[in-house]
User: Fold this.
Amino acid sequence: MTNFYLETLVRLGRVSSDWRLLEMSCRDVPDGYLRMKGAIPTGVYRSGKRKGRCKFPKQLDTHWITDADVESTKFIYEQTTGKCHECEGTGKSWCGWGVDTGHRYKDCPRCNASGVTPKEVRAG
Assistant:
């Protein structure tokens, strides 16, 4: 799955492609804004219960983006790939998870399960 929030930060030149998004919040921030916290991994744990996981610095970088920035990234994705941003071309949209059923998917309502960008969006 494409992380459009991280892709937006990279597209705007605020972080490099190595940067990892660790926290995201819209709580206690102005309307229309999202607060992103993350960092570039400093290494990998070599032993213990976190063996193989990335190490991060204690102080995380904080970046702000708007809902409009994210929507713009989704639009660019659709224009360059021709795929629906909701299902990423699969025609299936995630709709939930359960202990007994695992991940559940339904037909993508945005592209009517076709996987391609809806015509009204393609026209610009």
Observations:
- Helices lie at 4-11, 67-81, 119-122.
- The chain has a mean pLDDT of 92.
- The chain has two domains: 1-79, 82-124.
